[in-house]
Amino acid sequence: MGGKFGTFGASGRLLTARFTLAMLQRPPQLLAFDADDTLWPNQPHFDHVEREMCAILAHCGDADTIGRHLYQVQRHHMHLYGYGAKSLMLTMTETAIQLTGGAVTGREIQQLLDLGKRLLDFPIEPLPGVVEVLSELKRRGRRLMVLTKGDLFDQESKLARSGLGDFFDYVEIVSEKDVPTYRRVLARHGVDPAAFLMIGNSLKSDILPVLALGGQAIHVPYHTTWVHEEVPAEQLVGLDFGRVDTLADVLAYLA
């Protein structure tokens, strides 16, 4: 069937078994898809910009040192700046100011801003199989939602550039993906959590809060994960959720 069902044992190791339809708690009434790194590539563009930032600030230290400092600035200000390209532009600038003791040049700041601007208009190409999966689910009459977090303008622009917007019955762009947010979204659409299925690449944002709410989830791993989205193995112990190797495997899971 092309997929696995994940159960994390006491050691935190992923124990896998072939999934079956019986593993669904109940047929989902609403299927929600994460956007970045589930429907289209995103993190590789941010990784490239961060590498370019390290090259611009190479006189301040090696890439690991600069990267760690950027991480600390991001973590400190995430509640103010949120997620996305504009947040990265602010944190890169602040990182440069701190690492240079305020001696960063106007030229360097402009270079950092130009890097960030690239993240606001890069071409969006759906990941392999995305169009086919969405087309088939629409043919089956499924209610589909894209549920993504980040800057409203930026995420709306990405969805428009992707050409995928017409597949979705609903679009929800939120500032955070946590239990209260999912609860509000589901209440607004009149969906019981047990009849909700979230599909995405982030264990932290797409899987854990949905399971905590009593919903269902399928993890579609992506080859690179933003450090702020990483989850310690111990947080996954005892949790049951679908895991597929590619988005196309979701169709077999829902057959």
Question: Could you give the topology of this structure?
Answer:
Elements: E1 3-8, E2 14-18, E3 30-33, H1 43-56, H2 63-81, H3 85-99, H4 106-118, H5 130-139, E4 144-149, H6 152-162, E5 170-174, H7 179-189, E6 196-200, H8 203-212, E7 216-219, E8 240-244, H9 249-253
Parallel strand pairs: 3-4, 3-6, 4-5, 6-7, 7-8
Antiparallel strand pairs: 1-2, 1-8
Give the tags.
single chain, 255 residues, 8-stranded mixed beta sheet, 9 helices, 8 strands, disordered N terminus
The helix-strand sequence is EEEHHHHHEHEHEHEEH
Q: Give the rounded overall mean pLDDT.
A: 87
Gross geometry: elongated
CA radius of gyration: 19 Å
Number of helices: 9
The amount of helix comes to 40-55%
Query: Which stretches are poorly predicted, pLDDT < 50 over at least 5 residues?
Result: 1-23
Going by helix content, strand content and strand pairing, the class is: alpha/beta
What characterizes the major β-sheet?
Answer: 8 strands, mixed
Give the distance, in angstroms, between the N- and C-terminal Cα atoms.
10 Å
Strand content: 15-25%
Lateral strand order in the biggest sheet: 2-1-8-7-6-3-4-5
Per DSSP E runs of 2 or more residues, the count of β-strands stands at 8
